[in-house]
Amino acid sequence: MANWQNLDTLAAYQALAEMKKPIDLKEALAGEKGGKRVAEYCVPMACGLKYVYAAKQVDEAVLEALEKLAEEAGLAEKFAELYNGAMINTGEKRLVLHHLTRGQLGEDVMADGVNKREFYVRQQERIAEFAGKVHRGEITNAAGEKFTTVVQIGIGGSDLGPRAMYLALENWAKANGAMKMQAKFISNVDPDDAAGVLDTVDAAHAIFILVSKSGTTLETLTNESFVKDALKKAGLDPAKHMIAVTSETSPLAGNSDYLDAFFMDDYIGGRYSSTSAVGGAVLSLAFGPEVFARFLDGAAAMDKLAAGKDLRKNAPMLDALIGVYERNVLGYPSTAVLPYSQALSRFPAHLQQADMESNGKSVNRYGEPVNYPTGPVIFGEPGTNGQHSFYQLLHQGTDIIPLQFVGFRKSQFGLDVVIQGSTSQQKLGANVAAQIIAFACGKEDENRNKYFEGGRPSSIIVGDQLTPESLGALLSHFENKIMFQGFAWNLNSFDQEGVQLGKVLAKKVLAHDTDGALKAFSDMLDI
Amino acid sequence: MANWQNLDTLAAYQALAEMKKPIDLKEALAGEKGGKRVAEYCVPMACGLKYVYAAKQVDEAVLEALEKLAEEAGLAEKFAELYNGAMINTGEKRLVLHHLTRGQLGEDVMADGVNKREFYVRQQERIAEFAGKVHRGEITNAAGEKFTTVVQIGIGGSDLGPRAMYLALENWAKANGAMKMQAKFISNVDPDDAAGVLDTVDAAHAIFILVSKSGTTLETLTNESFVKDALKKAGLDPAKHMIAVTSETSPLAGNSDYLDAFFMDDYIGGRYSSTSAVGGAVLSLAFGPEVFARFLDGAAAMDKLAAGKDLRKNAPMLDALIGVYERNVLGYPSTAVLPYSQALSRFPAHLQQADMESNGKSVNRYGEPVNYPTGPVIFGEPGTNGQHSFYQLLHQGTDIIPLQFVGFRKSQFGLDVVIQGSTSQQKLGANVAAQIIAFACGKEDENRNKYFEGGRPSSIIVGDQLTPESLGALLSHFENKIMFQGFAWNLNSFDQEGVQLGKVLAKKVLAHDTDGALKAFSDMLDI
After folding, report:
1. Does A200 reach chain B within 8 Å, measured CB to CB?
2. Positions of A marked active-site
3. Which of A95, A346, B407, B514 is 20 to 30 A (C-alpha) from B414?
4. Residue B212 DSSP code
């Protein structure tokens, strides 16, 4: 058993905590030495990606301290416990098995009387079979016509991850002849969300995927009713247009209201479910099961690297610990995720959930309050857009915000135009390279308004192209980074008690069981 | 002339700075007293909106201190200087006139030899005339067919604001028979952005709006070329499909490459340009000029209230100063914007730009470093989606993040479904009411993992429905809030020197004029 202790009790952390003065990035990146540093502070990842941390405020001394911390905190050991089936989700007393949806890192994991890897693979096979029938026109609408659109109805992890992955691959699929069906998403209980999406969908040729692990998520069931009403009004039979992704014990399983049901289980948290049936159904229908399988392969390849013990060769672990240094020692309160790829437009929103819902906690895995900051605020938008927007604060604001860039050498469509001697893709890459140096090194100017202090750290993940494989690897990187940070902070990253209280109070409002301020707010909103 | 001084030199601020211990929200909101507080801590806004700050950590003592601060900082006086045409943008030596695009708050403002209010109105009239001709089929494509789609090509303020406003009104327009043309947006220099959008657009029936004040924004010109290439490949004449929104002195003005050009000027910052021709062209084409005029009316009505001197009746000024108290005295580093309206899905991204680009500064308006924190990180997503995601950290994370809710009593489409005794719209409202109380009051629990500390402050802007008028009022509220905070911090909120350095370095990369670390990063990205 790994030694689960609070961060501040570890000798390695106490040593790290002495390193309060960040290194001088301008100095570190200057001249030829700077070029060498970029080559050295670089970790190969899966699928041709690499993690470059040359513009992070670390040197050999900090890295050695982080290596000791990784060792003393037993990060690799804890990950091994996790993938071998230990009860890591202490709050809900559950295993944490999303890695098994894409590979087998360790021993067979048995739960609920079955081998869980086999269970997840079986669901993938069932989804692939179903998607194939839809694509070949063997499963059709009542008029015998092919389905052309798939609409996911889900919220939180059943929405953000699959939506971000779909958007990430939509143009790639178009460019590579892999586009089988367009996908849309309904999530918000705001009735305008469902109404707005339905307004753009040809319902007669649409399959709706109802995604709810428990089969009781109120928003999702409400939106299901909204959709069913619309289908009935259009003279369609909802049972011929809907499938479910749920747990085997939910009321949605084995229910004749659905064409079929595909299963996940309690060991897959919503925010880690993109590689399970939750992402699998919509992505397999949209792009074909082969593309989804390639996405899983990319994630599995990156998981393998994440299981390595050598911090310098393990990008997610290193990224995690540099983040702990920035958060706990240097005191930076938030992190921006800045993909230079329009296809990753919703990837920051997915990471915002994955990270903030996992590590936005004040108690350790035993339910005891911790005395140190945990998960930071995560936000971001794609570059170059953000450059014309909130980068002002990132460059010249009074707080330092660590930055996480992502960039690719090739676009997805491959269509481009040469203006002023360079392609758009080259401009995109030039901008991200320039930003890294601008943030790190700053610029002197006698006019203080044009002066850039620099010392603003960033890392970048660079790849050749955003493909199903590299997207899988990218997702795995961040999932594992978050997991390692949770281990370091001694949190349970896999429950979410903080989202419960609002639900309880909302029920009271709807039951008119309120008084005082809550009643006043409810009245104001005409409940 | 108002007295432009740094925040920390003001006696009123020094008194406020003593109030480091926030009031007990649970106590303040308890029982009947709590209901009364909600009714009292509420400011009417324009268009039926109200700003409720009962769940902010303020009491009479804090409010009195803020009143003194508003007085001593001369906030109302400074706003009057601004709208009467003083040179408020000290960095670029420019007037700040976006309020004039929607009304006349004070004296006539003359600049460039013309009355600026008349100039902006004239542009609105020209746009209305052009849009009318397009809608009536008097301006058509070469085949004499009506245009059905409008595509805005712009970045930063030429993209985020107009896009957020379009999305905010799209479903309203559909429900109210005001949908004239669908709008799409191309912004990123990533060639996949233009390629992806063009893939979904019927170019033969599309008008493209090129938006660049200077006429030299590289991303925008690059995307224009991309679009022109695509039009030519489709056998279309770009000059018959494009209009420009630019300044009168730009190369895009009076240029036969465009069907027409509509003008803004140097006194309208990009992030404040939604009510100028930048928002006017796309919104008038999409929804008709009458709808755009209603949007302006809402903004103008709210501007009038923002010009009032009484802090307790001036929602943007009060919101601004409560924010200063939270940022500078209570030390909260970020703010979440959480609209309970799917239509406002990109409103937080627009505010992120408006706020962080305006007040993410470390020097005052005279270019001298300030000794206090200025603009916070702004982020957000619509509720209820966020509840199933990053709210975990907001409820139970180690940092306190002030929250800015927005909610409406009615949906835009008016389509709804009753599940478990309530409509979706009621569920939406119940959730936001519940969240306010959950954040403020928390919950005791012996299980520390289920314990909610509370003391997490929020405000809410409540309205009847999101309409053109209320959207205009909402936009004005936040624009003026940001302006007042800039005044309080003694910043120039209207320049953006922080976005320049990256541009300069990107040019060097593209010219291969680099060495060391910048060359290494550029090589990695195949520039």
Report:
1. no
2. 357, 388, 503
3. A346
4. -
Q: Which of residues 105-134 of A touch B (CB under 8 A)?
A: none
- Which CATH class for the A101-294 domain? alpha beta
How far is the CA of A88 from the CAs of A2, A406, A437, A487, A495, in angstroms? Answer: 11, 30, 40, 10, 10
Q: Is this prediction's pTM over 0.90?
A: yes
User: Could you give the CA distance from residue A378 to residue A338 in angstroms, rounded to a whole number?
Assistant: 11
CB A437 within 8 A of CB A31: no
Instruction: Determine contact, residues B385/B400, Cβ cutoff 8 Å.
Output: no
Identify from B368, B431, B495 which residue to disrupt to test chain A contact, counting A C-beta atoms within 10 A and taking the largest count. B431
Cis peptide preceding B101, ω within 30 of 0: no
Q: Mutation target for B interface from A390, A405, A500: give the one with most B CBs within 10 A.
A: A390
* % of chain A at pLDDT higher than 70: 100
For chain A positions 392-411, those within 8 Å of chain B (CB to CB) are 392-399, 401, 407, 409, 411
Residue extents of the structural domains in chain B = 109-295, 497-527
Torsion of CA B419, B424, B430, B436, to 10 degrees: 140
Q: What is the DSSP string of A495-515?
A: --GGGHHHHHHHHHHHTT---
Q: Output the six-digit token pair for B320.
A: 């601004």
The single-letter code of the amino acid at B303 is D
CB contact under 8 A, A499 and B395: yes
Strand partners, A25: none
Q: Express each pLDDT in B340-385 by its tens digit.
A: 999 999 999 999 999 999 999 999 999 999 999 999 999 999 999 9
Q: How far is B504 from chain A (nearest CA, A)?
A: 8
pLDDT at A468: 98
Contact A393 B424 (CB under 8 A): no
| Helix and strand totals (H; E) in chain A | 18, 15
> Which whole number is the average pLDDT over B332-346?
98
CA B259 to CA B110: how far, in whole Å?
29
Is CATH 3.40.50.880 what the domain over B109-295 is classified as, yes or no? no
The total of other beta-carbon atoms located within 10 Å of residue A24's CB is: 15
From B81, B326, B357, B381, active-site residue: B357
Give chain B positions within 8 Å (CB) of A221.
419
Residue A375 touches partner B, C-beta closer than 8 Å? yes
Distance in Å, alpha carbon of B23 to nearest chain A alpha carbon = 16
Our answer to whether residue B410 is catalytic in this structure is no
Residues of B in contact with A195 (CB under 8 A): 171, 411, 413, 415
Alpha carbon of residue A46 to chain centroid? 17
Active site residue B388: yes
Q: Model ipTM?
A: 0.97
Q: Which residue has the tokens 């990253």?
A: A493
Please say whether the beta carbons of A377 and A335 come within 8 A: yes
Cβ-based contacts of A388 with chain B (< 8 Å): 155-157, 159, 219, 270, 353, 499
HEC profile for B258-284?
A: CCCEEEECCCCCHHHCCCCHHHHHHHH
- What is Dmax (Cα atoms) for chain A? 74
CA distance B17 to B325: 8
- Average pLDDT taken over every residue of chain B: 97
Nearest CA in chain A to B417: A226
Which among A340, A409, A389, A381 has a CA at the least distance from the CA of B154? A389
Structure tokens at B62: 């804090």
Instruction: Give me the residues paired with residue B50 across strands.
Output: B44, B462
List the one residue out of A457, A435, A445 whose CA is nearest residue A388: A435
What whole-number distance in Å separates Cα of residue B506 and Cα of residue B502?
A: 6
**B368/A contact by beta carbon, under 8 A:** yes
Tell me how far CA of residue B292 lies from CA of B176, B178, B282, B289, B295, in angstroms: 14, 11, 9, 5, 5
Give the chain A residue whose CA is nearest to the CA of B25: A517
Per the prediction, chain A carries an average pLDDT of 97
